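USER:
Working in pairs, take the chain set out below, taking as long as you need, and write a paragraph about the fold.
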Amino acid sequence: QVQLVESGGGLVQAGGSLGLSCAASGTIFGLNLMGWYRQAPGKQRELVAYIESDGTADYIDAVQGRFTISRDNAKNTVSLQMNSLKPEDTAVYSCYAQVQTTLAPRVYEYWGQGTQVTVSS
């Protein structure tokens, strides 16, 4: 079994910064794509940013230039640094990972429990 445990988040004023971290633990033979989803009240969940095992990263347009995703393959962690936060960034942010749990070349998807990010205007 694999667990993703997030930390960080909280309340911040518009223009401020917050950092999120996520640690994967359990039976892990490899971590492929890792990322962060968010879901605001009344809206669909969206993939905010993701990063491949080789460090290639991508972002949705709404956060490009403000958010930075990174990962530490040795520690099985992924982080999201959020700068210049806006009220519309308010959402529950969840960690996501594609995990290889055996020697077979197959990955399974896992999500963290989510952490609240609230940006006040």
User: Anything to note?
Assistant: The first strand starts at residue 2 and ends at 8. DSSP finds no helices and eleven strands in the chain. The chain has a mean pLDDT of 96.
